[in-house]
Specification:
Length: about 280
């Protein structure tokens, strides 16, 4: 996992372009890295093709720019990190415990189909399996073919989340990626896992799902005033987030025991994501 302890920003002379820099050792080194990166950004902006500034500013030299709130160790080994992402949600980053988020496909119904159903005689049709049932059936089938892998399955607002509880993955290599792809994980999520060399799961709701705007500032903060604005926003977010949960535990597939390195991350995940089963998903 790559979660540096120091982050800062550098600006061009007019303060119209900013770049972030990081360091594991000091703020001074982070400043040097920010200035070097700013030079690369300005050079890229001068080219005809330009660059994807949103992605370039979020993933800094294959390191995700997120504020670290806690580090979880097992026998002096860092097994997980809790960070806060760009839109303010807490994220559990696991070094060796695989998360797989599977989003349901968006359903689309045409207006002509709606009008036809309104003015035509209803016909008796066999019940269709829900997206959740279809997804879980595929997961169950895969697990039955891989009995050495035990999965915990959760319902999320947009799909299903899986945790591989009995296996440890040293790196996000081709073998790990193959499992995620086969089970239907999002390709952008897989790229992020490979870049950061860890597996990620959101612990708290997306702000727009609970009636909140996005944060008024981004980490690392430009000024104490920006930090104060963010803190005020975050206090409101935390208060609203208490009325929602991120997922509901559905079932466990397989009979393998939980890997020792995964005990603490799973406890944190379940406590923060689905401690109150009666709350709505967000």
């Amino acid at each position: 996992m790559r979660f540096p302890r120091f982050w800062t920003r550098a600006y061009n002379a007019k303060k119209t372009v900013t770049a972030r820099g990081w360091s594991e050792s000091s703020l001074e080194e982070a400043t040097q890295n920010a200035e070097s990166r700013l030079a690369r950004v300005l050079a890229a902006l001068s080219t005809p093709a330009g660059i994807d500034l949103d992605r370039y500013d979020y993933v800094v030299d294959n390191v995700i720019c997120e504020e670290v709130l806690d580090r979880i160790n097992h026998k002096d080994v860092e097994v997980a990190v809790i960070s806060r992402n760009a839109y303010g949600a807490l994220v559990l980053n696991a070094a060796n415990m695989m998360f797989i988020d599977i989003d349901f496909p968006h359903s689309s119904v045409s207006w002509s189909g709606c009008l036809f159903s309104l003015f035509s005689k209803p016909k008796s049709q066999p019940a269709q399996a829900t997206p959740e049932q279809q997804t879980l059936d595929r997961v169950r089938q895969w697990q039955s073919m891989h009995p050495d892998t035990t999965l915990r399955a959760y319902r999320t607002a947009a799909g299903v989340r899986l945790i591989v509880v009995n296996r440890s993955f040293d790196v996000v290599d081709d073998g790990a990626v193959s499992i995620m792809q086969t089970l239907g994980s999002d390709s952008l999520y897989i790229q992020l896992c490979r870049s950061q060399n860890c597996f990620r799961a959101r612990l708290t709701p997306k702000p727009w799902r609970i009636g909140m705007s996005k944060p008024p500032a981004l980490f690392p903060f430009n000024s104490p005033e920006d930090k104060a604005l963010y803190d005020a926003w975050y206090a409101g977010y935390v208060e609203k987030a208490k009325n929602f949960k991120v997922c509901t535990h559905l079932e466990t597939l397989g009979h393998g025991s939980i890997h020792p390195n995964h005990v603490a991350p799973i406890e944190i995940h379940d406590r923060l994501c689905c401690d109150n089963q009666d709350l709505p998903l967000a």
